[in-house]
Amino acid sequence: MGKVIVITSGKGGVGKTTSTANLGTALAMIEKTVVIVDADVGLRNLDVVMGLESRVVYTSMDVIEKRCELSKALVKDRRVENLMLLAASQRNRKDDIRPEQMQDICEKLKEEYDFVLIDSPAGIEQGFHNAAAGADEAIIVTTPDLSAIRDADRIIGLLQNEGIEPINLVINRLSATLVRKGNMISKNDVLDILNIDLIGVIPEDTGVIASTNRGVPLVHTDRSPGAEAYMRIARRMIGQRVPIPDMREDSFLDQIANWFSRNK
User: How many structural domains compose the chain?
Assistant: First the structure.
């Protein structure tokens, strides 16, 4: 029996879909069987990020409305064995799916696969509740800015109310240079605010945009800092003890203290 992990954020634009695609690909690359489920009904993007948009024939809505079997709706990844995609419908609305229907899909998938990763839509409306309905665990993705952190904190509370645990954190687009200059909130300050376990930090990586536009997840680029970070997270997800590299950053509060000391 596998596990279902919802990957969510609250705020859009923090790299949640990119993280879902890369973590799913990374897990398959280390020989786990994986299904990535796009729960963003009406606004799907996961198929584009994975370069599979031309191969989508059926969606989760087709499964729910019994136009096809679940196995027939799964799209096999072109590059990695053991990796499948279940796309969301572009013609429907989020309200067209009920949480129990998504839960039923997740229950069936985790009988056959090691990991089921659910790419949750942004926000806290029906789409979020559908995505979280079948989840055993959660990963919160946030960037180190106050609006994203505030939204992440609200999502954590909602997940805890649903009894979903553990809830782990991925900090995306962290720049050690900006942190040292006092222009970005540090990893430690984000952790102090959110108070959940950190499973990984993704450094700022210019290769992300190019990989997304090509439909090739970043983990296929061995030397990319972001790719290496995603691979480390995947190994932590399967229980390996992989340290999180020290980015040599000072906390935001330390930066304020340093600024005052320099300007006395």
Answer: 1
